[in-house]
Amino acid sequence: xxxxxxxxxxxxxxxxxxxxxxxxxxxxxxxxxxxxxxxxxxxxxxxxxxxxxxxxxxxxxxxxxxxxxxxxxxxxxxxxxxxxxxxxxxxxxxxxxxxxxxxxxxxxxxxxxxxxxxxxxxxxxxxxxxxxxxxxxxxxxxxxxxxxxxxxxxxxxxxxxxxxxxxxxxxxxxxxxxxxxxxxxxxxxxxxxxxxxxxxxxxxxxxxxxxxxxxxxxxxxxxxxxxxxxxxxxxxxxxxxxxxxxxxxxxxxxxxxxxxxxxxxxxxxxxxxxxxxxxxxxxxxxxxxxxxxxxxxxxxxxxxxxxxxxxxxxxxxxxxxxxxxxxxxxxxxxxxxxxxxxxxxxxxxxxxxxxxxxxxxxxxxxxxxxxxxxxxxxxxxx
Length: 382
Fold this sequence. Notes:
9 strands, 382 residues
């Protein structure tokens, strides 16, 4: 029996190599590499069961190919588990590519990477793999009767792009690390993905606990706010820190004016997590940042942290944009960034893109000051 692994809500922009798998774009009625006309017709029929928000078959999606095989070759349980693990890394690298407060920029959510594995034969039916608490089951359905509709929050995502440099190094880390260390990274990345579905049915308290778990695991920190905050502040180090004593945001709980604001943010974020993790839906703890601000800051900075940790190991080279985000994060945390700037120039002009652009300009100026060739040209022109 043939088998197909695919992500119907993932309008992937191109083919990506992810360890043992390839993620391959699908476009309806375009030739599929390695399939004859009969097999391609069969695949198109199966994908027609997956509908857009207006009930039409999806026109773009993503296939997953394992080990260079045909897209419809069978997969054993071990291979299926490897696919799920590697798709999790691809999902994270899609989330890490997001551009916030930039309509029309790169954006996706983790449900775009919802993975389906189906068995099918020459008859007019397919087997769908569904999870159960005690494992999984295969249910047989007539193809003509199936209609699975895209989640509403995936429909606006026109194209999915991955951070290839980050993806390459995470795959290398997976291959080279000890099992215990990689399990910690895998847990952290999975928690981050689960906290970024954009699903209206996922409560923000659940997202909060998952995000805190992601930070704790990736940092190898103890389960307390102070240790997580210390390790976070050490790992993500901007060129010019914003110290608590100089910050616009203030709290009576901040006892050390020389602590950076990123430390105070993480300590508060993780401290409040305790209420949600122990079953409370509301917290009475005093806070400098509201819940929406906390979740945005966590979503932005976790991929930054992952890049910083990989860079420290010598496995990842920062881009100018990475350096700009590292420098801009504390400034963002010190702003009332959910509101547009008072001198907003357009609907696309928001605090975070503005801070990143300013920081990137400074990164380029620092590079220029340290470049002997540019220094020679400057001295010659003077």
